[in-house]
């Protein structure tokens, strides 16, 4: 009977229509006796285009903060780890000069910059999701022009230069892969490198790859052969195609999986190629409507849903881990709101509440399709020496944390097992996937977890439209609490808490803040503990906590006994 009750609860989350009108009392319930799965840290994955930011001042600071907020090692994915150049950082660009050739065409390997990047991760207990990409200039079949100088507002296709082409020699490419993995094993140790994930390229179904799908499969075969020769226990996957809700992306993903499972390997001549995990991307689609930003959370959730469904439908791979290699509200981290006004959501709490609401649904979609969901990479880092709060998709600006980073700090406190959550104003999974949050009522939802001595509940008040609204009074109910008295701590991200952006605006939006102002902004960028109540009485296993939550606000309740 217990299993039937849990199944009924899950169906309610998927399909039920919220019964409450907008003005009715809002109630969110978590039943600690009904576990739905592990509270896997799928959120503890981050990525960015510009690898040379890694070891710069603010890059190191942010990586230290990401490492500190997570109870498990954080995985980091970066582009341009094999791109040719002098290591100068620029928007949507980076380089390591790992591979060049001498006058006779012999390979010259230089791991100085790649080591600096991976050293920065490993020193903080982080792990690379190490990307083989992009094509070194000396190996590109069409190298010129190679270096691009894109800036926000320019056509996006300017970035696709010589680094995007297939190699002029697949064996030399394989040798490069082999030497890099072998070097990493020598530098960091076999056990450490075994804990990493390796992948080939990025979004090869669009202009990031200027070859055919079969040429990409050939490149993957040479890559896999080299990786496994250097370290047979290494984990390699792909293809990191764009969102599977695109027909062209779904077709690419299917072709790649078919090649790895049943086609002839270009290197070995045998059937199949090692594939240890599957990766694809998922993006939302914000736009400006009637003078305000309207998010497209349903676009991102459909990408995830279609990707999970596709993997689950193929028997040979349905149990493989899945990494959503980029999982974001839209597609261009380096496009600021000055040139792309639809990205104005990024500085404030719209980004925070979207992150809370979307990650909760990622868990539910994985449950629904029964897939092995490993991680979702937030393609959001930081940009060195850029204007304050320029509206990049980043976690911090000039070393000051944005509100969205505090949602990840909240996730870092959630441990144990996920438990069933229901709410009379929480949008059902399939409704928000198909239609977003466009009705007058907001999505007031929750994600909860519990272990032997504590429970946590994240509550958000999300709407696709970035418009002002009245705060909501919410009754948070936890059932099945195994204690008579508890301590309840409340953390808040909203206009008045954990919000450096609002403090910066109150200062007059200075582009050259004083040291005193910077110190104030850094403090405002931390997660704020709004209240703590000790010896709160639990009646018959039920704890009721009233909270007030602003529109686009996020609250975390931590209950300890």
TrEMBL record:
Transmembrane segments: none
GO molecular function: hydrolase activity, hydrolyzing O-glycosyl compounds
Catalytic residues, chain numbering: 203
UniProt cross-references to Pfam families, sorted A to Z: Glyco_hydro_39 (PF01229)
Highest taxon of source: Bacteria
Entry similarity comment: Belongs to the glycosyl hydrolase 39 family.
Name this protein carries in UniProt: Beta-xylosidase
Origin species: Paraflavitalea soli
């Amino acid at each position: 009977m217990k299993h039937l009750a849990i199944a009924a609860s899950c169906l309610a989350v998927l399909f039920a229509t919220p019964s409450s009108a907008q003005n009715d009392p809002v109630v969110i319930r978590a039943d600690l006796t009904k576990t739905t799965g592990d509270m896997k840290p799928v959120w503890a994955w981050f990525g960015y285009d510009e690898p040379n930011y890694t070891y710069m001042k603010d890059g190191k600071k942010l990586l230290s903060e990401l490492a500190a907020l997570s109870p498990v090692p954080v995985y980091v994915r970066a582009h341009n780890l094999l791109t040719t150049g002098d290591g100068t950082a620029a928007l949507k660009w980076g380089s390591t000069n790992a591979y060049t050739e001498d006058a006779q065409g012999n390979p010259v390997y230089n791991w100085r910059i790649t080591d600096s990047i991976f050293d920065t991760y490993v020193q903080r207990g982080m792990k690379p999701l190490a990307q083989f990409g992009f094509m070194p200039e000396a190996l590109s079949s069409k190298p010129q022009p190679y270096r691009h100088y894109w800036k926000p507002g320019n056509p996006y296709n300017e970035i696709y230069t010589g680094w995007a082409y297939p190699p002029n020699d697949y064996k030399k490419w394989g040798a490069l892969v082999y030497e890099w993995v072998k070097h990493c094993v020598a530098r960091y140790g076999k056990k450490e490198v075994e804990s990493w994930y390796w992948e080939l390229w990025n979004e090869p179904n669009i202009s990031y790859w200027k070859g055919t799908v079969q040429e990409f499969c050939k490149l993957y075969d040479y890559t896999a052969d080299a990786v496994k020769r250097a370290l047979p226990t290494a984990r390699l996957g792909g293809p990191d195609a764009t969102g599977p809700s695109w027909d062209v992306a779904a077709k690419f993903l299917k072709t790649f999986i078919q090649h790895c499972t049943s086609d002839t390997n270009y290197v070995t001549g045998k059937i199949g190629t090692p594939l240890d995990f599957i990766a694809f991307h998922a993006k939302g689609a914000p736009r400006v409507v009637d003078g305000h930003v309207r998010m497209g959370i349903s676009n991102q959730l459909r990408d995830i849903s279609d990707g999970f469904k596709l993997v689950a439908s193929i028997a040979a791979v349905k149990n493989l881990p899945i990494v959503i290699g980029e999982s974001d509200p839209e597609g261009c981290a380096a496009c600021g709101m000055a040139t792309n006004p639809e990205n104005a959501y990024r500085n404030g709490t719209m980004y925070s509440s979207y992150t809370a609401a979307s990650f909760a649904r990622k868990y539910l979609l994985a449950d629904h399709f029964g897939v092995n969901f490993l991680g979702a990479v937030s393609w959001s880092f930081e940009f060195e020496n850029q204007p304050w709060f320029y509206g990049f998709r980043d976690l911090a600006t000039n070393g000051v944390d944005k509100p969205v980073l505090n949602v990840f700090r909240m996730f870092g406190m959630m441990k144990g097992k996920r438990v069933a959550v229901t709410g009379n104003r929480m949008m059902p999974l399939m409704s928000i996937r198909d239609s977003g949050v466009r009705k007058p009522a907001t999505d007031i939802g929750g994600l909860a977890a519990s272990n032997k001595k504590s429970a946590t509940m994240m509550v958000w008040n999300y709407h696709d439209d970035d418009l002002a609204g009245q705060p909501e009074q919410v009754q948070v109910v936890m059932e099945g609490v195994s204690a008579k008295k508890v301590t309840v701590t409340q953390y808040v991200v909203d206009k008045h808490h954990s919000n450096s952006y609002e403090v910066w605006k109150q200062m007059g939006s200075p582009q050259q803040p004083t040291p005193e102002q910077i110190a104030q902004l850094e403090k405002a960028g931390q997660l704020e503990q709004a209240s703590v109540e000790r010896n709160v009485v639990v009646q018959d296993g039920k704890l009721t906590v009233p909270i007030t939550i602003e529109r686009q606000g996020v609250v975390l309740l931590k209950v300890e006994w």
